[in-house]
Hints:
alpha/beta, Leu-rich_rpt_Cys-con_subtyp
Amino acid sequence: MKRTPSSMPMKRKMTASSLKSSSQQLDEEEAYLYLPDDCWESIFKFILNDNNRHRLNPRPCFNSLSRVSKQFLSITNSLLFSLTVNPSTVPFVKGLLQRFTNLTSLHLNSRFDVVNDILCLLSQFPLKKLTSLAITSNHSFPANGLHAFSQNIKTLTSLSCSCAWHDNNDLLLIADYFPLLKQLNLSRPSTINNPTNFITSICSLLSKCPCIQHLDLQKTYFLNDQLVAELFLADLVSINLSDCLHLTELALYSLVRNCPSLCEIKMEYTSIGKESEGSSDSLEQFGVYPRLKSLYLGHNPWLSDEIIIIFASMFPNLQHLDFPWCNRISEDICQFLTRCCKLRHLNLAGCRRAKLLGINVVIPQLEVLNLSYTNVDDETLSVISRNCCGLLQILLKNCDNVTMKGAKHVVENCTQLREHGCLIEF
């Protein structure tokens, strides 16, 4: 049928109205879909935390998100706080620093002698939030780079430096450059030209850094009891002296006496007990130190019942105790537990002579018990389950004398295991 002229405007009017309605609907939908940056940031942080819980790398996900829009790119850039520079990423350091401006932690891991250059480059960027720096290199101490770095970055509180020490002045430079350090890791020194002069500088360095709270000196093979006795650090909270083969329990006693804030000591693979056999009674004069909460003494073959009884008197508030593969510990472990009734975590893995059948005191706060590779049996498990009814986890790997009967005792008496859905690990 032929269209009349009067119908033509009506057609155009309806078309315009329809377009206007459609455009308005799209605007409303976009408004509903729009979220401000802080909301997207919360969503991305949730993704990051979820990946961390599952030990997944969040960067592939963030890389994908950054390609969605400029808004997402800006948000993901602001959420990366830690960066590792490997040999393969050295050519891209400048671009990475321009992109990620909120870095708080930086790890320079280089097999080549470029650490000085990277540190000098870092000093040119306003890394105002950077608090942690780790350097791993098989080359010499990067004195020039750290000097340039320290001139513009004043916020550093944590330093880990694993490299070759060639001069005792290297250590003193650390104190001069970073006086605000609270965490210092000088473990595994690579090579030393003059061991006597490194030795003389460890105490000098620490005396210039009185704010240090966490100190890692593991595998510093030349350390001995006399040197440790010279450490006076009022704010020290934790120290790691594992694999320092010349240290004995005298070093431990010096630490708790000279460092009043100390809560955690790690001295695995040392010589605790080696020099004191038959003379442990004279060690009881060292006093009581209720502040110490965690003690890691695994793989000390000379650690004996006599010494751990002294520890029980000295450290009545211990909550975390690791004695794995200390084969001289036997029946007196029960006496130790009687005195340290605040324990939450006890590791006796590999202590095949340890006998827990004589436990006659309730330890309600014990949550984690590791008896793997021991000679524990069903009867012992029955005693343990009655006196440690708050257990959340018990590890019994390679315990050949344990049967389902013993496991049943634990399940029946340790009701927290059921309520928290924890399992007995065989």
